[in-house]
Amino acid sequence: MVARQRAIPEVKFTHPAKVFFPQNGFTKGQVVSYYLGVAKFILPHLRRRPITLIRFPDGVDGEKFYEKNVPRFAPPWIKTLAVARRHAPGAIDYILIEDAYSLAWCANLAAIELHPFLHRAPQLNRPTAVVFDLDPGEGRDLVTCAGVAFLIKGILDGLALKSFPKVSGSKGLQLYVPLNTPVTYECTGAFAKAVAELLAQQHPELVVSRMAKIRRQGRVLIDWSQNSPAKTTVAVYSLRGQSALPFVSMPVTWEELDRCRATKRSRALFFSPAAARKRLQRRGDLFAPVLTLKQSLPKAFGSARALAAPALARYRAKRDFTQTHEPPPAPVHRRAGKRPGGRFVIQKHAASHLHYDFRLEMEGTLKSWAVPKGLATELGVKRSAFMVEDHPIGYLKFEGTIPQGQYGGGTVMVWDLGTYQLLGGDLGAGNLKLKLTGKKLRGEWHLFRIRREQGKEVWLIAKSHAAAKPISPRQDDRSVLSGRSMRQIARDNDAQWKSSRRSIER
Ligand code: MN
Question: pTM for the whole thing?
Answer without folding.
Answer: 0.62
